Amino acid sequence: MEARHFEPLLTDVAKHFAKPGDILGDDRFTRQQKLKLLEQWDYDLQLLLTASEENMPSGDSSASGKVSEQVVELRHVLSELGAPHDPEAVGPAKIGAPVVDKQKRQPS
Question: Is 101 within the bounds of a domain?
């Protein structure tokens, strides 16, 4: 997909896709574009979880549970693309560890 059509999707991935699996099955995107969308969505979800943890909920009492379910599905989709969540990639932080694209990593 052309950058001019792709970039706006990154501003609010959840607005454009009902669930992470929808990105995986969308043939309009390259693997790298799918990873970028999923990474952005993961980051957004981590921010929501952090806000909830710090007593800044969205107002929907079930939102935290929905976000947690989306994180699980998102991590599963990332694994299917060969880029699993790697909690040891960085030190402790309020938001989760980055996605690690196993296809880009060079053997040590």
Answer: no
Instruction: Please tell me the distance from the alpha carbon of residue 28 to that of residue 46, in angstroms, as a whole number.
Output: 26
Residue with tokens 């390259």: 30
pTM above 0.85, yes or no: no
Number of domains in the chain: 1
Distance CA 54, CA 49 (A): 9
pLDDT tens, residue by residue, 51-85: 776 676 555 555 557 888 888 899 899 989 988 76
Print the domain residue range for 63: 3-80
The verdict on residue 50 lying in a domain is yes
